[in-house]
Recover the amino acids of this structure.
């Protein structure tokens, strides 16, 4: 039985997801994408996963660099989520629209995020038109005052208190 991909997309759209910007630095450029497919995997060791489309320029960049960051977005960072999910945005200077700080390894993490993580790529698993990238968490930090979270539900961004 073949699943209708449009129906599948709508079904999965009813699963509310937190929104993050995933970043890396490769070949002298910062790369970033908006993701709602970031998931905790393990506490021992501390692992998370992110699913990345194989055609995205971020895909090869994160594998080449071996490191990436995750910035969990607050509801007031919606414009940032929209920017980093815009297809065809220019690579040079794309981070100029989002205040950020570079880690010691050169990974940009977004200022004002609810929380941030820095990871080393541990495994890459092909999965259809995406790769499941498993990262070993090297650093995890909570942001300042907790604010409403940005969530993705039914194809739209909204806030979760």
């Amino acid at each position: 039985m073949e699943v209708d991909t449009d129906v599948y997309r709508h079904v999965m759209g009813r699963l509310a997801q937190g929104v993050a910007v995933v970043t890396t630095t490769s070949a002298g450029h910062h790369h970033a994408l908006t993701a709602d497919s970031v998931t905790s995997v393990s506490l021992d060791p501390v692992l998370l996963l992110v699913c990345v489309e194989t055609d995205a320029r971020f895909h090869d960049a994160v594998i080449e660099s071996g490191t990436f960051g995750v910035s969990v977005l607050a509801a007031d960072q919606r414009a940032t989520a929209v920017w980093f999910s815009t297809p065809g945005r220019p690579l040079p200077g794309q981070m100029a629209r989002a205040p950020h700080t570079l880690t010691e390894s050169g990974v940009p993490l977004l200022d004002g995020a609810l929380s941030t993580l820095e990871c080393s790529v541990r495994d890459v698993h092909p999965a259809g038109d995406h790769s499941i990238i498993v990262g070993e968490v090297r650093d995890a930090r909570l942001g300042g005052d907790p604010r409403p979270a940005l969530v993705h539900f039914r194809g739209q961004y909204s806030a979760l208190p």
